[in-house]
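Here is one chain, start to finish.
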Amino acid sequence: MRTKTILVITLLTLGTIAISACQPLTPVASATEGEVAPVNVEDTENVAAPAVAGSGNAYGMADGECDGTCDQQGVGGHGHGQGGEMGGQVPAFAIGEISQAEADGLAFMREEEKLARDVYLTLYDTWGLKPFTNIASSEQTHTDAIKALLEMYELPDPVTDDTVGVFTNEDLQALNDQLVEMGSASLVDALKVGVAIEEIDILDLIEYLEGTEEANIEFVYENLLAGSENHLRAFVSQLEAQTGETYIPQYLTQEMYDTIMSASNARGGGHGQGGHGQGGGRGNQN
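Its structure:
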């Protein structure tokens, strides 16, 4: 059964997620005051969309991208530039033939990353918690990276309307509506929604990675996977600070979860071919 189907079936029980007691951590201040406790990790991924060899164009997240405790300057929190500006150019490997399953996976991930962006933007509007808006900026870069792959392989883009909360995939449309409703109940519920999205995103990316040997697709999926692991650590840190309890994974195995949580934040990257080199821009942090 696909993990997205599992998510639809089981999210109704999210409000009763089992967590075990531990020594309380410093609680996060009220979101209405605009103050939040610092998270324990930074989202320093450098996910970039593929560029055709020789183009010299780079679309990527500045090295200073963060997960909730800093502000950034740039377009939507991420940079668009050439060479030594913001971003790092993804290598354009030889473009091979891909299967229908690979094409379907790209279409699904394009909207799944948009779903993460849209839910986080909506929950930020509700609670004012900075990790939501900063991670939403990262998710924008993720969905842009998948869009670039769709263009590279001359595949249709399922995102015909980029309005927040609007989806072509009916399952994702229903899921978006459900997640927003759940996350609007309380700040803790909103953080649980964030954790759930990242757990499922990780599982889907692993599944699609196992189903492709196309280098361009593998490169982008691996960078997105690193980003989702960073986001998971950030949301878990905030959730545990809010509740004073240790989170128990709901979709990942405990072993997978422990491995991710014990790792340091990953930074994507790669050397561009035929362009202006790697970007070295950083977002400004407050």
